[in-house]
What we know:
The structure holds two protein chains of two kinds. Chain A is of the alpha+beta class. Chain A has helices at residues 23-31, 86-93, 103-116, 122-128, 140-153; strands at residues 2-8, 11-17, 49-52, 55-58, 71-73. Chain A has two domains: 2-77, Beta-grasp domain (Ubiquitin-like (UB roll), Roll); 86-153, [2Fe-2S]-binding domain (DNA polymerase, domain 1, Orthogonal Bundle), CATH 1.10.150.120. Chain A contains five helices and five strands, in the order ββαβββαααα. In chain A, strand 3 and strand 4 (55-58) form a beta hairpin. In chain A, helix 2 (86-93) packs across helix 5. Chain B is globular. Chain B starts with 18 loop residues before the first helix and ends with a helix. Chains A and B meet through helix 2, helix 3, helix 4 and helix 5 of A and helix 1 and helix 15 of B.
Amino acid sequence: MHQMNLEVNGVSYPVVADASRNLLSVIRTEVGLTGTKEGCDDCECGACMVLLDGQPVNSCSYLAAQAEGRAITTIEGLAEGDELHPIQAKMLELGGVQCGFCTPGMIMSAHALLERTPQPSEEEIRIGLSGNLCRCTGYAKILAAVGEAAVEIR
Amino acid sequence: MTNETPVGGLGHSPIRFDGEAKVTGAARYPADSVPLSALHAKVVFSNQPHARMTSLSIDAAEAIEGVLFVLTAADVPVNEYGLTMFDQPVMIGVRDTGRSAVPADVSRWEADKIAVVVAETAAAAQAGAAAIEVTWEQLPIVADVATARSDDVLVHPEAGSNSYHNLKIRKGDIEAGWNSADVVIEGTYELPYQEHAYLQVEAGTAWIDDKGRITVETGGQWTHEDREQIAHALDLPEESVRVIYAAIGGAFGGKEDMTLQIVLALAAKRLHTEGIDRPVHCAWSREESIVGHHKRHRATIHAKLGATADGMITAVEADVWLDAGAYNYTSNKVLGNAHLSVGGAYEIPNARIDSHAVYTNAVPGGAFRGFGGPQGAFVAETQMNKLAAALDMDPVELRRQNTLRDGSEGISMALLPAGVTLPQVIDACAHAASEPVEAAPFAPIASLPADDRSVVHGRGFAAGYKNVGFSFGFPERCEAEIHLHGDAGDDAPTAAEVFHSGAEVGQGMHQACLQMTAQATGVPLDSVSGTFSDTAHTGDSGSASASRLSWMAGNSILGAAEEAEKAWRDGQRPAIGKFRFTPPPTETLDPETGAGQPNFAYGYMAQSVDVSVDVETGHIRVDRVISTHDVGRAINPQLVKGQVEGAVVQAHGYVMSENLVVEDGRIKNPRLSQYLIPGIGDVPEHVESVILELADPLGPWGVRGMAEMPYITYAPAVVAAVHDATGVWFDEFPLTPSRVLAGIRSS
């Protein structure tokens, strides 16, 4: 067993877990934040996307131990109190959420995109979200929501 | 009560009430509420497409540290289940233990279950699963319909033939139909499987609740049907079983049948018997999900269409073969839908249609958005488009001439239910397609940058219909309960509560229930709340399927509101109204002629699709989709458009890229990296929803069902557009670049 400290959404969590455990399972079961989803456990769907020092990472395929000393941001860390992040608010307003299972990972990818590309073209949004699968919406409303969130953030 | 539209009643698109939890990560899906005390279950598949079990030992598995026990067929009181036929054992065992209509010693599918290991941790359960010792006598594998049709090897000897469900239509005088035809179109179509690929794979937790009920929390499409099947297999009264739905991460028909429900209930019951007061949790991996649940049916359909030189249909013949796989699931009902739709939504004077569901040792076919409609419509609409080309006729005009309309007799020789609006839908779609694109299309991700000289363009059209609600004599019903709150002296209630079981699978059902309750009671939406999808608190609503739930739930809510209003006027506080809605009865089809009234309502749709095809690479880009629907009345226009856009993209995957490989009874590509559903870079450039609101005479506020319709006509419209661009007909898909290129080069 490996003892580690994980900094998730600005809070330090002491965790004891097998060194082989992936970050997704440790966030969900040891830290207890279940907003990050498992859709495939193989980097195929993007539902488990979190940010490591601002960079999007499929947490299913990343060892928890490797995340020590880095700032981990999950979907639970985006809203400021009751104030939704503009990406969250636009996803709701424009109907980018149906079953909602892809939504946390989708929003984390969008967040990383807008951090590095504050004024993305539609093609850049598509590329930024190309690692996140959605089976409900057909993506059009997600695309629109991220585009409008970028405008709002500016 | 007021007749004015309250704020947030019908026709508005307020933010869905369950949305905030979904964007903040607070929503609880079935794998998100695992108590710390929970034990973990592992379902063990047979991994045998066709074999008889000769021995099974769980001793070594139960000896593994952390394993509490292993459940086998011997633990199942009534070892059979199935949504419409009890033809599937809960678990395969050496001897037929328990009561079962189906022999339980034969594995007919690689994902038949042989054991459930319950352990302290998922890892211990996995280790236990690996320690199970089982031997098999191999039986010949019935790989596909072509093999099955000979009946040399029977998948279910008790059924007498692999072709276990067969339907006929004999309408008019087929010989006279061919004699009056100037043109005959004939083709054989091979239609592929499709995997649902909902993002949330199967998971659930079971425990004994405070009233002693075996309680299963999971995701599904019909709480009460899950409960009925659990109770049947466990030989318990339904009242002893409770089913609760957590937030559900997509379903599309794929969660209509049992996966974990019965085995979780068995595990909870065994724990209780042993005095262990702990919940038990099970979650499938993506691979287990793809291997372990049914698919859209692969099908072989041969069809013939005759018409006069001026484009009037004279005759239709079709032979439909659905690969039902190892167990029926809902294949008998899916077959019925394919049977009714394979001729198209047209006036057909003379018809011969024979349709068959066939057992094989492949993955079962079952419910998936459209429910046989997509296979039927692909053939019907491709035949019509070929006819238009053969007659050099406008494909829209051909449909205008032959379309079903009010007063038409349907293919099963019964009048269509009133409110046939296909003529208006066809016209609206054709009109919208002639308009310029509203906004500039998005720039594509040009994975294969096209040489302009090699890119050709085309446009295709398709139209159709889909029944709303369950067919063929099923006892359709939907229950709702409404409570109106307020003080004794209040003229009108200040708050309303609705109790409803309708499954929220992502489509917005619960939001629609609240809006319909606001509309029905006159209580403003922000004072309406709901309790949903828990058999302990909500009545039987029927399934979230067949585009039925808004239509059925709306009628049940209208009835409950009326009852609650009476109680309110009688001074009851809270005023409680309960209502069980039943639509007009339907009929099974006559076994020899197919005559009968199969349905009580329909939705109508038409689609126009523009494509660009790179004839050097075989790469297709869909530039524009006009998806036209009569929804009767849009309860929430944003949710309606969400269904259209989502269905179109799901159908885009079906026709363009999704290719499930099943050989000798085994799925060869059970991963999302090998089975390619559309990503955000793969979708049509521009999807336009054209929404008509022409009331369904029986629909609540005129509402029609609509969630399947945008899926059904998309594939034939794409294939017609590709033909328009290239001159090549594709009778088989997905239209991968290699298939398209081969088609172009061989033409």
